[in-house]
Amino acid sequence: xxxxxxxxxxxxxxxxxxxxxxxxxxxxxxxxxxxxxxxxxxxxxxxxxxxxxxxxxxxxxxxxxxxxxxxxxxxxxxxxxxxxxxxxxxxxxxxxxxxxxxxxxxxxxxxxxxxxxxxxxxxxxxxxxxxxxxxxxxxxxxxxxxxxxxxxxxxxxxxxxxxxxxxxxxxxxxxxxxxxxxxxxxxxxxxxxxxxxxxxxxxxxxxxxxxxxxxxxxxxxxxxxxxxxxxxxxxxxxxxxxxxxxxxxxxxxxxxxxxxxxxxxxxxxxxxxxxxxxxxxxxxxxxxxxxxxxxxxxxxxxxxxxxxxxxxxxxxxxxxxxxxxxxxxxxxxxxxxxxxxxxxxxxxxxxxxxxxxxxxxxxxxxxxxxxxxxxxxxxxxxxxxxxxxxxxxxxxxxxxxxxxxxxxxxxxxxxxxxxxxxxxxxxxxxxxxxxxxxxxxxxxxxxxxxxxxxxxxxxxxxxxxxxxxxxxxxxxxxxxxxxxxxxxxxxxxxxxxxxxxxxxxxxxxxxxxxxxxxxxxxxxxxxxxxxxxxxxxxxxxxxxxxx
Length: 547
Hints:
This protein has helices at residues 2-61, 63-96, 108-117, 120-125, 145-161, 221-231, 303-313, 325-335, 351-359, 378-386, 399-420, 423-427, 439-454, 463-470, 474-485, 489-507, 512-518, 524-535, 539-546, and strands at residues 104-107, 129-134, 140-143, 168-173, 180-187, 235-241, 245-253, 295-299, 318-322, 339-343, 369-373, 391-394. By secondary structure, the chain is of the alpha/beta class. Helix 3 runs parallel beside helix 5 (145-161). It is elongated, with a radius of gyration of 32 Å.
């Protein structure tokens, strides 16, 4: 009896402990989901607010230049904010049973075809084919125009948003099944993992709530769509396979009880409801031919934010643009810009990952990275700084603050130029990389220096040969060297030759011509001229003064 009681007590204790651990795990997972949800919703509000507040300031300071475009961007982003608020309110009304149904009797086929056609321009901007297929020429039935509009708009905009260029989206109306009309929206997009399908219509749920999700969103649209379908006594289902696309199936009841309508309802599909900039091409932004201006790479997937940033930076920088972190890395490696301004939440590669990749690449490790994001909490800032971000600025941000941050980051890079362009650094023989923060830069410069010194007497050594040995393009080598030393590749080759000549003048009795030949100068009088430009005196006078 006593042993049984002891064993039972142990069993109860272990059971309580396991239940407590399971509950703690559930609460942690719930807290993580809520944190990601609030982050995404915050991003949805902060991004349009950045554009609106920035454009207001631009219009005030330069009305003639910004008025028309600025007002258009303010209106579009204001509509985006209103859409988010309305979706939340509509969902609340639906769940409380406070939303009425306004049915009319009319040709739903013509109405659905018109809705689909209103998305054609958006589909073209995404380079996606949009098709309308119907087994009915016409079908007169009861339907609520506003709620049908919301259902179809949510499904079509999602399908277009998650279908890559070259893909297809279909709105297909099948034959009447008993008393229901089947409507399908299918795409050839990314698809949804099978384990996430049961939750796809849950409020605030996102199949992809990561910082690299394709397109923006709050997880409200599909929950609202399901509730609207239920309100109309219909039903909705989804089938999907990753990599093969998704099919959303809606069945609406076919009835003939509402007043007959002789006219098609007015349709106003607000395409600003879709995230600004999705699918639109963002190429190099040309701001004049002033090559002396530093090159800034903007990495941002929202076109309106790109336009606002371009307005802030043009006149101070040459600009290039990338639409996500992966493209941002590719352009940074190709162009080797002077500074990168990047969003954090982007498709394919987020800003943190971009920063980490840039800082561990030998061609881009020196580039300052400024992160602009809705993630304004301390943990996110610390995470960004740990991944190598040089500065962190929360949306909405002040234009002047952004410009000052960029200016200060470029000034800090001048300390690297002073180091790598010093004669002491170039002449030191036993130097080894010491500081982890500049390890890749040190190795890059030492490798170039060793190549030049190894072929010092070869006056045929030129930039193309140096590029070949460094496995870089001419643009990459030029921009990297310019950023680190302030010199072009041609100037740097000549400078290393002159530094070596300077050393020989001080340590040997070779005559001037011999030193010129040993350092790769084919013409002694040319060597004398460029040496005088560097030291302010001729090689002979330099030797006499310093011996």
